[in-house]
Amino acid sequence: MSSVKYVNPRKLCSLITGVLVAFFLSHARVALSDDVLTLADWLLEQRNCHEAVTEYKRFVFFNPKGEKAAYAFYKMGLAYRSEHKWEEAVDALRASILATEDPKIADERRINLATTMIASGNYSLARLELLKVSETPLRPGSLYFYGIASLYMSDWNAARDAFGEFYSRCAHGQMTDRAEEIERILASVESSYKSARLARFLSAIVPGLGQMYAGDWSDGLNALALNGLAIGLIANAIHRKDYRDATLVSSISIRYYTGNVYNAEVDVRKYNESLDRENAMEILQLVRSDEPL
Prior knowledge:
Blueprint: H1 9-45, H2 49-62, H3 67-82, H4 86-99, H5 103-119, H6 123-131, H7 139-152, H8 156-168, H9 173-192, H10 196-205, H11 209-213, H12 217-239, H13 243-287
Helix pairs in contact: 1-2, 2-3, 3-4, 4-5, 5-6, 5-7, 6-7, 7-8, 8-9, 9-13, 10-13, 12-13
């Protein structure tokens, strides 16, 4: 004869109550978390970035995984970016990319990450992120910003290739004209550079001539005057057969002579960097209206 196991009604009631409480608490937490996310979005819309970040962090603490967590990290990154907190923005945007399972969303956020890096001056890492964007409708956006980062790095070949491919994907003629204009500007840049080697050679032969070649006439004339004076003093001392004074002046003036050769190279570098900035800004102004939305 089988025995029926007796169940204590009080224990059964406690068990059912515990299950119901756990069920309602879990749903209440989800509802509360959604309210936190809604509040954070509202704070960000009001440009209260600091408080928005606090609420996004609160949401992620209780919901560390899933697409909502990825979204919270993304909006947190935008909030940090609005405050120019670049390092925190980059970390949050990277976390959002890692947390999402949607490749298209990951690519969209990767472009946002790259533009944040460009804004913070980290052009090399920006280009690395843009190279990770897959061959999707977002690819033209990655090409555009790759070209922008390359301009800031004065990497003209990379800028030429990126913008060339970007505009080749645009159908109408205005975009083709834009690519041709960029090519004209870049060709002008490359043909306008000064040679540091030539500047050193010129200043070694005639002190100050290298600086004048680089466009720094004041430094060039100053170097010519100082070194000319030193040569005159040395020649005068030799003419008087005062070799001691000649040696002393020579030991002092050699410093000005070598500095003159070095400064010629520095002036050429500054000239080329200034040329880079001017032409990069010209191209940036040209392509600004074509930024992909």
